[in-house]
Amino acid sequence: AAEVLAYHYSRTPRADKAFHYLALAGRKSLNSYSVEEAERFFRQAMHLLESEPSCADDQAVADVVVGLLEALFLRSDFPEAVRVADRYMPRLEAFGETPQLVFALYFYSMTLAQQCEFRRGELLGRRAFDIAERIGDVRARAYARIALMLSSMVLGRYSFEDVQRMGADGLADSRCCGDNSILNWAYWIIAWDCFGRGLMTEARNWALELIVAGGEREDRRALGFGYWVVAWVHVFEARYDEAIIGARECLRNATTPFDQNVAAVAEATAMILQGHVQEGLAKIEELRRRTLEHGWLYLDSGAHGPAGVGLAMSGQIAQGIRLIEDSIVAADACGSHTNAA
């Protein structure tokens, strides 16, 4: 009954109780992927803290800041997540080296990666991992490792063997701490590294393993993750009908805007390469408009190639080539090794 108690206590002088139940209601909402509702509860808690600074201790405040960052990340509101991180990170830093600081650094790092700031994201991921190692917190280490791996993987820092080893460690930590959210990312990052190296069989096998594990846990985020990886694998294997099926299965299960849009780009790409150029290109261009509007720069960069090919296939050859050339320049500038290749 956290929501009811939060509502009633927020209308009494008991600010401490109101903060506690607002935080609890926010976490409860996140656990069921009610992301907008979670954001609302966490923001109410932070507003309450501003008017009643003594209503919560350091750990409770840090938990709410992390919860708000997680909600914004899941909503794919990356510009706002950066703003919130910049505002509250100094406060979390002042609390010392805690698991909450690691989680905040994780969401900040992952957010920067989605905005193609991979070098900054890598620095934050490295710092998060070092703190997690020092404090000996398994769950914090699982999160920090993924943040470090994502940006470093895009920047081309690791060999295949490095990623396989780090991924296995990430899976072990995620299973040990029983956190399904970071377990999904651990599966995904191994699959996506294989995909980026052209190892499509391995990428598909990891994605299918994630889908099976997600089905057993009844975790729709895991299913969404897995199916959009499968869809992209099928695109690169020229199995376009199966790519569209995978993308639509992701759309049926996806719980976040990011997953929905990655799947939609895969579907549109398959349509273009099937020969349904105008329809697929129209979808790609609408998706690109949306991604740029929301600051989803990493996702947008993945749509440049399909859009360029679609333009060329529709007769706009010079425009298509120019888009792909501009994309290579942008990828080189931000260090996006895989996209540039």
Tally of individual helices:
18
Model regions low in confidence, pLDDT < 50 over at least 5 residues? none
The end-to-end span amounts to 52 Å
**Main beta-sheet strand count, sense and barrel state:** none
Q: What is the rounded Rg?
A: 21 Å
Average pLDDT reading? 94
Number of strands: 0
Helix content: over 70%
Oligomer state equals single chain
Strand content range: under 5%
Shape: globular
Which structural class is indicated by helix and strand composition? mainly alpha
Summarize the entry for a quick read.
This protein has 341 residues and is mainly alpha-helical. The protein has helices at 2-9, 15-31, 35-51, 58-74, 78-94, 99-114, 118-135, 138-154, 160-177, 180-196, 200-217, 220-236, 240-253, 257-274, 277-294, 297-313, 317-334, 337-340.
Could you explain the architecture of this structure?
The protein is an all-alpha fold and 341 residues long. It is built from 18 helices and no strands. Helix 13 packs antiparallel against helix 14 (257-274). It starts with a helix and ends with a helix.
Record keyword descriptors for this entry.
18 helices; 341 residues; mainly alpha
Secondary structure elements and their pairing?
Blueprint: H1 2-9, H2 15-31, H3 35-51, H4 58-74, H5 78-94, H6 99-114, H7 118-135, H8 138-154, H9 160-177, H10 180-196, H11 200-217, H12 220-236, H13 240-253, H14 257-274, H15 277-294, H16 297-313, H17 317-334, H18 337-340
Helix pairs in contact: 1-2, 2-3, 2-4, 3-4, 4-5, 4-6, 5-6, 6-7, 6-8, 7-8, 8-9, 8-10, 9-10, 10-11, 10-12, 11-12, 12-13, 12-14, 13-14, 14-15, 14-16, 15-16, 16-17
